[in-house]
Amino acid sequence: QVRLVESGGGLVQAGGSLGLSCAASGNILSINVMKWYRQSPGKQRELVAGITSGGTTNYEDSVKGRFTISRDNAKNTVYLQMNSLKPEDTAVYYCNADIFISSWRNYWGEGTLVTVSS
After folding, report:
1. What pairs with residue 30 in β-bridges?
2. In principle, which of 12, 32, 42, 67 could form an S-S bond with 63, CB 3.0–4.6 Å?
3. CA distance linking residue 101 with residue 30, whole number of Å
4. Which sign, positive or negative, has the C-alpha torsion 98, 23, 88, 56?
C-alpha cells in the first residue's frame, strides 16, 4: 500500500518563505512524475508545479520565479520551496505522484495547509 505524506505547512507572513515535503512510502518500484497541487476555499484544485524522474520541471504561471520544485529519487520525496509568498498562495497543498507497484497508478496525499497573512 502506498502513502504520500506531506509536511511543512503552516502560517507565514506575506513575503516570507516555507518549504513543503512529500514522502512516498510502500512497496514502490518506480515513481514517474511528482506534482504539487493546491486548492483554496471555493476554488478548483490547480496544478502548482511538477517534476519528472529526470528532473524536468514545470510551473503554474503565478508561481514562476517564486517556487522551486525538486525531488530526491533515493528518498522517494518531492519538495516545494516557496519564497516571496503572497496571501493568494493560501491553500491546502497536495502532493500527487504516478507510482509503479504492480502497475502504474496515481496517488494523492492528504494535504497540508499553507496560510499567508497580509
Report:
1. 100
2. 67
3. 7
4. negative
CA distance 104 to 9: 28
Q: Average pLDDT, whole number, for the chain?
A: 97
CA distance 24 to 79: 12
Q: Which residue has the cell 471555493?
A: 42
Q: Are 25 and 5 in contact (CB under 8 A)?
A: yes
pLDDT score recorded for residue 17 = 98
- What pLDDT digit, counting tens, does each position of 47-67 carry? 999 999 999 999 999 999 999
User: 68's torsion region: left (phi>0), alpha (psi -120 to 50) or beta?
Assistant: beta
Structure-block grid coordinates of residue 37: 497541487
Which has the closest alpha carbon to 60: 31, 42, 36? 36
